[in-house]
Amino acid sequence: MSDISQQISDLSPEQLELLQLRLRKLTEKKREGARVKAQPRAAGVNAFPLSLSQQRLWFLEQLDPGTATFNIPLACRMTGSLDTAAFERSINEIIRRHESLRTSFIAIDGQPSQIIAPAPVGGESLIKLPIINLTRLPKDERETEVSKLAAQEAQAPFDLTQGPLIRVCLLRLEPTEHVMLVTLHHIISDGWSIGILFQEVAALYEAFSLRKPSPLPELSIQFVDFACWQREWLQGEVLERQLAYWKERLDGELPAIALTTDHPRPAVQTFRGATRTFTVPGDLSAGLKALSKGEGATLFMTLLAAYQLLLSRYTGLEDIIVGTDVANRNRLETESLIGFFVNQLALRSNLAGDPTFRELLSRVRQVTLEAFAHQDLPFDQLVEVLQPERNLGRTPIYQVMFALQSATLQTQQLPGLTLSPLEVHSATAKNELILSMYETPDSLHGVLEYNTDLFEPETISRLLAHYQNLLESAVADQNQRLSNMSMLGESERNQLLVQWNETRVDFPQGPCFDQLFEEQVERASDRIAVVFGDR
Predict the structure, then answer these.
(1) How far apart are CA 53 and CA 47, in angstroms?
(2) What are the residues whose beta carbons fall under 8 Å from the beta carbon of 232, sequence distance 6 or more?
(3) pLDDT, tens digit (0-9, with 9 covering 90-100), for 267-316
(4) How large is the C-alpha radius of gyration of the chain?
């Protein structure tokens, strides 16, 4: 490891974030042409082209309209004295600020366009806040009803031609307890955007409940500015440089992660899903972070290496491709926008030669750094260029995904009100398996989203146990060969090696064969005993 790498790995998260911010500013000073700037707006024109990623989602919606596959649900418990007028005003101010939340999508001359509704003026509200009263239900039934309504809301589809593509409602459990349900369509939002929405709700509500003006500065650009800029910037030499890397990286026959499934694989891919949550024990989390730091890698790389090893064990493949999401907000002006910026990368690792886990981690580190350096090419455009063999039952290039995220939605303390995020699952699965890890200061939490048309819950629980066992094995000795790393727990190992090998059988003690033959002769001496040919 170089001295610079050692110094960087010793930085605190806050120092590392500051360093990244300074490097980004220096880079952008050298690349003024790469800055996203507000596009000139002609009077009366409110139709704009889609971003390259939005275009893919729009086409998918045309193929299978009226589904909730790309819904993003959010729920928050609000404890205390809630000023519903201030809350509704906060939501409408966010919709005013972010044009993406006032956007719908229609085809003009066969091409999809973003249509931006005018911003409300003079205190008008673009949406009214519905309040569902659950106080009449018995207390022990209210939480069940909250879960039911949250699931229904997450599963309700959007019509992309009718904006806004955001829904908000309040569930009243007590005079001092509410649950906020928010649902957005992915074409106008992403995971980062959810964090922005949550933070702006808190900041605006605090101001409006105290009869103060908005504390948030006006946005310098909007999402359509990014969409127009992306199409202008990503061409010529910039596009060729990105394409050249990915063509080389994904050259040859692409391996399909053909996991053994509990049910026959449907001929056409389905998106019905469920999730299974788990927690990595604190001592193991600390060990993984120490291992990563010692190898000059990030925690993302270490967790990904173990995940790819797990997939290799399950499939017998040594060439493993796993998809991952990147925020794709590597320009300062896009960081505070709600919109669909996220991009996907295909991380292809080679596990051949039975390397040690340390060697595998080094390979994964190199693959990850190179991929993140070429993250600007939209995944959908890459698929169009590569034109991999298509199978309606699978997603192209990769079938499983991995992500590591910070727990961005934290409890917010406001005057007289506490906002606490709640988990909401949309009952969909965009891929066969999506493993998402969430890092907190003292632990790691995981959520495995899986396709219920392929896997049973018991299979998923076993897979997660195997993953944690591999993590423990890596922390215990990163110099051991992959073939020596055990993914079996003690009970499973005992079952395989002891219980299933208990083949000893006690046969009853009785007469020998010749005695049995003599007894048969005495019983049927006139019957033929043996036939050979015609004798």
Answers:
(1) 17
(2) none
(3) 888 888 899 999 999 999 999 999 999 999 999 999 999 999 999 999 99
(4) 29
What count of other Cβ atoms lies within 10 Å of the Cβ of residue 326? 17
- Nearest Cα to Cα of residue 78 among 314, 420, 501: 420
CA angle 66, 102, 413 (to 5 degrees): 100
CA distance 216 to 518: 102
Q: What is the b/e burial string over 457-481, where b = at least 16 CB atoms within 10 angstroms of the residue's CB?
A: eeebeebbbbbbbbbbbbbeebeee
Q: Which two tokens stand for residue 500?
A: 């299933």
| C-alpha 112: how far from chain center | 27
What is the CB neighbour count within 10 angstroms for residue 324?
Answer: 21
Which amino acid is present at 171?
L
Candidates 488, 487, 490, 489; CA nearest to 308 is 487
Distance in angstroms (rounded) separating the CA atoms of residues 426 and 435: 15
Edge to edge, what strands does the sheet with 103-108 contain? 47-49, 111-116, 103-108
Q: Name 159's Cβ contacts closer than 8 Å, sequence gap at least 6.
A: none
Q: How far apart are CA 418 and CA 438, in angstroms?
A: 22
Reduce the DSSP state of residue 78 to 3 states and report it.
strand
- Torsion angle (degrees, nearest 10) of CA 118, 121, 123, 127: -10
CA distance 438 to 289: 13
CA atoms within 13 A on the CB side of 120: 18
pTM reported for the whole predicted model: 0.82
| DSSP three-state, residue 168 | strand
Query: Measured between alpha carbons, how far is 39 from 114 in angstroms, rounded to an integer?
Result: 14
Centre a 10 Å sphere on the Cβ of residue 18 and count the other Cβ atoms it contains: 12
- Integer Cα distance of 260 and 459 in angstroms: 10
The tokens of 379 are what?
């995944």
Decide the pairing of beta strands 319-326 and 273-280: unpaired
CB proximity list for 407: less than 8 A, separation 6 or greater: 438, 439, 440, 445
Q: How far apart are CA 181 and CA 154, in angstroms?
A: 9
> Closest Cα partner for 500 from 508, 488, 492?
492
Apex 70 CA angle, 418 and 195, nearest 5: 30
Q: Is the distance from CB of 390 to CB of 396 less than 8 angstroms?
A: yes
For helices 52-63 and 379-386, angle between their N-to-C axes, nearest 10 degrees = 70
Q: Which residues contact 116 (CB under 8 A, 6 or more apart)?
A: 46, 48, 99, 102, 103, 224
Give the pLDDT confidence of 145-201 residue by residue, as tens digits: 999 999 999 999 999 999 899 999 999 999 999 999 999 999 999 989 999 999 999
Sequence-distant (6+) residues with CB within 8 A of 76 are 179, 180, 182, 198, 419, 420, 421, 422
pLDDT at 270: 83
Alpha helices in 77-176 (DSSP H): 84-97, 139-155
φ, ψ of residue 296 in degrees (nearest 5): 65, 30
Residues 293, 443: Cα–Cα separation, whole Å: 16
Task: Mention every residue, 6+ apart, whose C-beta is less than 8 A from residue 534.
Answer: none
